[in-house]
Fold this sequence. Notes:
The structure is a homodimer of 174-residue chains. Chain A is of the alpha/beta class and 174 residues long. Chain A has helices at 16-28, 41-54, 66-75, 90-99, 115-120, 134-145, and strands at 3-7, 33-37, 59-63, 79-89, 104-108, 123-126, 159-161, 170-172. Chain A has a six-stranded parallel sheet, with helices on both faces. A two-stranded antiparallel sheet of chain A has the order 7-8. In chain A, helix 1 runs parallel beside helix 6. The first copy, chain A, starts with a strand and ends with a strand. The model of chain A has no long low-confidence stretch (mean pLDDT 94).
Amino acid sequence: MKAVVLRIGHRYVRDYRVTTHVALVARAFGAEKMLVVNSEDEIKKSIKAVNERWGGDFEVEEVSNWKSVLKDWKSSGNKIVHLTMYGISVDDAIDDIKEEKKDLLVVIGAEKVPRDIFDMSDYNISIGNQPHSEIAALAIFLDRLFRGKQLKRNFNGSMNIVPSAKGKVVKTMM
Amino acid sequence: MKAVVLRIGHRYVRDYRVTTHVALVARAFGAEKMLVVNSEDEIKKSIKAVNERWGGDFEVEEVSNWKSVLKDWKSSGNKIVHLTMYGISVDDAIDDIKEEKKDLLVVIGAEKVPRDIFDMSDYNISIGNQPHSEIAALAIFLDRLFRGKQLKRNFNGSMNIVPSAKGKVVKTMM
């Protein structure tokens, strides 16, 4: 079961740091790729630099139209999960989503989300029904999907952290 | 077991949106309060507006010196948890932390964190050993601490979302 993140509603410059956090979370929590409309090249570059140092092959891909991404994804028979505070609780829906055994497009909005997204998604899922953060929502969703195992994944990076009680211990492959 | 979040390293203006996400996550995931050094008044105001609409009494408090917050917290006998990618994995440490049955100060840094924080903390905890986001780290930590129950908490707000598969359903108390 693969997960690809689609970040919609990204506002140039204004959302730069938040969308970078979304990409880093997608990568660290086990997604394959983030699709984003109209974003800064720097996001792509900074994720590439993270891969070079810390491993893995997570990609950021610029797309021109989110609606056609949703349509293509739907017609391939895979599933679309939209994270929204208005949706069904993740803990009430995650087993059904897993049972589908399909690849997932996980849609993450910025402040306002077009109505179409609710209609086109197979699942509208809330991570609690309080306003918070799309970054946190993505992390919790992927954590539930992969049952926390993503946190122990080996990225085979040239740098690897050795978990430590008090310091910063990093193994560097020469 | 209460959790208070201490946000350190906040950079005026630059970190405004990220620190706002930290505050919203702290509130939605069951912390009592966020302490922050040198932040914008708007953060306090926007959280107040969220409480008025969506309930609860989560607070943002400006503090002048994080070191004295850590010292006071330590001398009260409560515990300090610092979230860092260099720490011990949350899933290897969360049971020990819960067994302490103490209130927790959860320290969340921005990019670089002073060495003192590692030394003064009782636990340096990683949410995976990959770089990602302090917003995601806080969400996962509080989710593990409160075992996901925080997501179903009733905030008794004047507005309440009714989880819905397709739409936005909000009950408003008149």
